[in-house]
Amino acid sequence: MQSISISSGHSGASHAESHGYSLYQEAWMSLKHAIDADLSQVSGFIFQKIDRFIQNNHENWLIASGLTPAGQLNDTDFFPGVRTGQIPTALLLAGVNTPDHNLIYRQIFSSVWMQNGRVALINPGTDTASSRLLVASVVKQFLQPDSDTIGALNPGFPHTVLLDDEELFTQDNSLHSFPSTTKFTYLALSEWYHSRQKISRHQSPSDLSRGASIPAPHSRRSLSQPSARTPGRQLRSSMFPRSNQAPRSLGRRAFDVGSDVHAKTITPVSKRSSSVLSDRTKEVSLDNPGPLVIILPQVESIPSHVLEEFIHLTSIYLSGPSDGCSRGLPIYLVLGLSTSPEAGFESRLCASTLGRLKTERFTVPPPASFLETVFEALIHFPGFRLTHSMTTHLVDSLFLCLDYSVQNFLRRIQFCMLEHYLNCPNPELLLPIERARAYLTALPPTELANMLTLHYPSVTSLVTDPSMSPPVSPTGRVKTKPTVVDRLVTQLASHWKLQYLVSPLLSWFQFICSSLSAQPLGKSTLSLYRTWLKNGLTQSEEFKLTLNLLSGLTKDNLLQAIDRAAGWLGSHLQNEKVGRFCNLWSPSIVQECCSELRQLERTTRHWYESLDAASTKINTGSGITGLETGPTGSPVGVSPASQALNGKQRISRWGLRQHLQQIAASSPARYSSPCSRPQTPWEQERSAFLTWLRCELSRLIPCPSNLPLHEVFYGPIGQRTTDSSPQQLISLSVRRRLNPPYQKCVHQALRDPGTYLQISQFQLDSPDSLNPALPDLCILYKLHLESTKMINLYDWLMAFATVLGEEVDREHPPAKSTQARFFHGIAQLHQFGYIKPTRHKADHVMRLTWGIAV
Questions:
Q1: How does pLDDT run across 196-224, given as a tens digit for each residue?
Q2: Per CATH, which fold does 742-847 belong to?
Q3: What is the rounded CA–CA span in Å between residue 208 and residue 214?
Q4: What does pTM read for this prediction?
Q5: Cβ distance 199 to 262 under 8 Å?
């Protein structure tokens, strides 16, 4: 992840700004390490599966090639495609191809490299117009890996100087005799790979340099494998040789192999290059050769016919020529798919091509799981917190609408934290309680008063409240009145307690709601946290609906949910997760919050026992209060005449309805509302539990914006308005920096570059004026804004030359240099998409910039 840095400005920059930046760096590094560790655990299992898939298939290839004892073969893991030409292929179902998937590919690169293998990563920008170009790109990366990638994976290794193509084939003796037409083909790769294999198995490099002869492999003609006999000959479009023509052999060549060719380095044959592997890896470099892994992150971007030809060629050199697997290559494919395999991969290939692949599917976790992991670390991190409006903007407007990239999401959080620390008047208040108290004590009284009245309006009423009297001790003696610093420290401590308790309490409440079929508050901790940030958890309509749903749960489901919540809270207290942030939490805060959680666990278990007892209690009596029965068993006060109905008397439907309404109105057992119905012991105990649940959540995790000094912890702080809503507004500058309106930014930069780009020499008297000192692109853009839909190029050229100060007319055309500058600017405007040529008039262009806001 790229770090964000700022310049300290001129020498007169304030010390508070630089100190705030140092505090930001300290806090961000602690948060970043925790998030990286959590994300590596989430994405680690998919990488481990792919790495195990490659290792198992490569071990089977080594056994089938006779490079390892056959007794080590595992029948359950044996890959039958080794001798049938099937390529072991890992289909990585990555969903939307975001920048985060590069981390998985780099992990695969690092693992294969440490196994003495090579990796070819075909980026989306690589030219894949033909299978020949694709094979050349793959082989080139195998022969000479990218030093930048190796340096990123192994920062401690020295930088490696890569060789050009001619130097590589000149220095490496195993590739010395290959003509230009067979450079970077599978034939050259096979010779290079197996020459290294012979050295590592039979002789030392010094022995082979005395004249060992290494036979060249048989070749097959294909689109990307031309014949060495006729280099300039055009090749057939068929993938296989003719049926009546046997594959031609290139004969036997003698190669003078140097001693440094087969050392496991990036460029072992160059004196300019240095090793990129550690001494431990060099010791293993003479063991069995490693796998050759080809990674295609976006396989949908490769044309179907190119992909088919590439798979056919790779399968030929996987199984080797006619002499079996002795000259085959251990090639493995890792294909990244954005869509389903049936739609984006299998439907694009023919049956014969699919038969050459032995595929296994691997699914990357969805972006929501990575986002949940990031927010778990953010919730556990003490100090800075995002406001609800900023969280909603980052998640809903940017993450879910732009790129689904967690790495970009972390950069935006990093920018928000930097913005908050630089704009916060007193970033030292974000430090632990002891350090914050020391900072407040050292402030002069006047600066402390200005800080409270100007920067933190939420604490003004607390400091100036005359109703607050000094506390009285049990002996009747008046204690010392708390100072302003004591009150401020108390409010800071309340925020620290709130930040410590919010995560376990939200998880505890989530376990209580786990038995609900419909969960209005959401099924993730992130949704609960966002509801709590907005207005408090208990004040939301979703919380009230959740309590109503809990009151309708069956006895067994509610008891099981409460038991799971109490059990989770007990296990959480035993395995506390603040170890990664232990240096940021005050010991007194941790001790007080742990005592609250233990008390909550005991109370939850008490409620479980009370509800369990109430569920088994039998309700004696009639269950109806205020109803007396007579000797015959009928309720007293009900007229027998009104109850009896003469069966012989005919009655209409309306009369029957009136009769039933009369009986209901005269019955003493009639209830005015459902609330007047007597409750069973279970219902009474359940109602008391839900009331206690609401009160406990309101007491332990209130809305943070209702507490004093909330401006210190929750940001970035937006512009203050007269709105009394507790939700803070996002600063407009922060929103524009996180997701700038590109069209409007380009428009303003071209229209008034002096103001927008802050360049003094381009300053204008008004945005509509023109100055010959402006860049040509700006002049042409402002001129085209004054035209209609169709722009005459001749008139445009004359106006452009006039602005530059030339006196032009029909007899005195603009200078050649002016015309060249004009057409260069026209080409730039066309590239931007502001104009386009028209077929009706050759000397006119069409304007495409209607509706741009000024």
A1: 766 555 444 334 334 333 344 444 444 44
A2: Arc Repressor Mutant, subunit A (1.10.10)
A3: 9
A4: 0.71
A5: yes
